[in-house]
Specification:
The protein is of the alpha/beta class. The chain contains 18 helices and 14 strands. The two termini are 15 Å apart.
């Protein structure tokens, strides 16, 4: 069976897609992990054979509906798990109406859910397609388990001192895109029509994000001046402009603005996580990492579930005392909270099966719904040559642009999907094989800078 795994934000999704790819390849399937461009151009050229197209959401839009219709007409099957998941807030009904529709689910062969809450809501709202909706859990949450603790490398950019991870989530006020672009997109795909209160909420969230940015600056400054010997790593959300934080926190001692690699490795290597309305609070809770929830002002649009996790503090002095106490316990290896059971509010959001990974459940569903028509061979040699041609065209265009302009653009630090590295992918696959006890030989071949083919030899 051919499986195409769409990655939008590599820091968020790549490792979980590689987990899926490793297990699927070990079961004899051909897997391509890629950005959307690689998959769609390969399909349109006729070089990629029909298979399962697994995407990151079913958000209703004319473009996405047309894309999926074209894939289905060519013999593909559509499946999805929403990578947003509405994990950091209670309820799912409003989110389900924004991110799904009957038409989009009609096109799909399977919809995977993070846990009981989203699956129950989707089945209630989209009753006629309830048989397509499956409670599997998420491969991203699989990687939060202690089983995969040894998977994560220590990043080269990690501070030498122990560090507090500040997980930032101010993606409306400090987005890579302008507010106009964000609102225009949501309007075009009909979100404001489906939810008349959403525009008011977006404006309110943006205003609160600006307040959060200022409170984060003050918190980082205060902690930098009142700590027992630790560093601070502020990690912007993937949608945020990291260079803004570089400017805002410049010159503050022992502070690092870093977004290298997936968030998992930074949670694992920190002594605690500070946040306000961030999904990372759930991951840290599952990973048995101390969480400090900093709420310095009244918030109407905050993520209530995420902000009820961990130790809630409201002032700079409270924040400093709590973080320093956790740091002392960390040095003494005396963090009793690590043995506490998972809160029920988290268990309802995220399904964990002690006997089977979410990735395994999803692959079994793919195997049940697929036919032999999805196992035809793709023309990968021609696919690779096609993208070599596209690459040469881009290089030529860039050279011409540089010749016509004195200014040369610097490296984009806000890229959602940096170029893949085959050696790094190989090493990740080997680690998954070792952890899962997979002894088969798995081959990885980079087809383009953002497309990799994974199969069992």
């Amino acid at each position: 069976m051919n499986i195409y795994l769409h990655v939008e934000i590599s820091a968020r999704e790549l490792d979980s897609k590689l987990l899926l790819a490793t297990i699927a390849a070990s079961r004899g399937h051909q897997v391509i992990v890629s950005d959307l461009t690689g998959i769609i151009k390969g399909v349109q050229s006729g070089l990629l054979a029909p298979g399962i197209f697994h995407t990151k959401s079913l958000t209703p839009s004319e473009d996405k509906f047309a894309r999926h219709k074209s894939l289905i007409n060519k013999g593909f099957m559509i499946t999805s798990i929403d990578e947003e998941g509405n994990l950091n807030d209670y309820g799912y009904h409003g989110f389900a109406k924004q991110r799904y529709s009957d038409e989009m689910i009609d096109q799909s062969s399977a919809v995977f859910g993070w846990g009981s809450e989203d699956v129950e809501a989707l089945k209630q709202i989209y009753t006629k397609n309830s048989n397509k909706i499956h409670k599997t859990g998420s491969p991203r949450a699989d990687l939060w388990k202690t089983l995969f603790s040894d998977y994560w490398n220590v990043p080269f950019s990690i501070p030498k001192k122990p560090f507090l991870l500040v997980a930032c989530n101010t993606g409306y006020a400090n987005n890579i895109k302008t507010f106009k672009e964000l609102i225009k997109f949501e309007s075009q795909i009909g979100r404001f029509q489906r939810d008349p209160e959403l525009l008011k909420k977006r404006i309110g969230e943006t205003a609160e994000d600006y307040n959060k940015i200022f409170s984060y600056i003050k918190a980082v400054q205060y902690l930098s001046n009142h700590n027992n010997g630790f560093d601070i790593v502020l990690r912007p959300h993937p949608s945020e402009d990291i260079e803004t934080w570089d400017i805002l926190l410049k010159g503050i001692p022992n502070v690092h603005v870093i977004r290298d690699g997936p968030i998992n490795v930074w949670v694992k290597n920190s002594f605690a996580v500070m946040h306000n309305s961030c999904t990372t609070a759930l991951e840290a809770t599952v990973s048995k990492k101390p969480v400090v929830t900093y709420i310095p002002f009244e918030q109407q649009y905050a993520s209530k579930l995420a902000n009820e996790l961990g130790h809630r503090v409201e002032s700079l002095e409270e924040l400093s005392n709590k973080v320093n106490n956790i740091f002392v316990s960390h040095k003494l290896d005396n963090q009793k909270e690590l043995d506490t059971p998972l809160p029920k509010i988290v268990s309802k959001k995220i399904h964990f099966d002690a006997n089977e990974l979410a990735a395994e459940k999803m692959i079994k569903i793919w195997e049940n719904i697929a036919s032999d028509k999805l196992s035809k061979a793709s023309n990968l040699k021609s696919f690779k040559w096609l993208f070599t041609y596209y690459k040469l065209k881009r290089i030529t265009a860039k050279l011409l642009k540089r010749l016509s302009s004195a200014k040369i653009n610097s490296t984009n630090k806000n890229s959602k999907f940096p170029e893949l590295n085959q050696y790094e992918i190989n090493e990740k696959i080997k680690k998954f094989q070792h952890i899962l006890g997979i002894n088969k030989k798995i081959e990885c071949k980079l087809l383009t800078k953002k497309t990799i083919h994974i199969k069992c030899l």
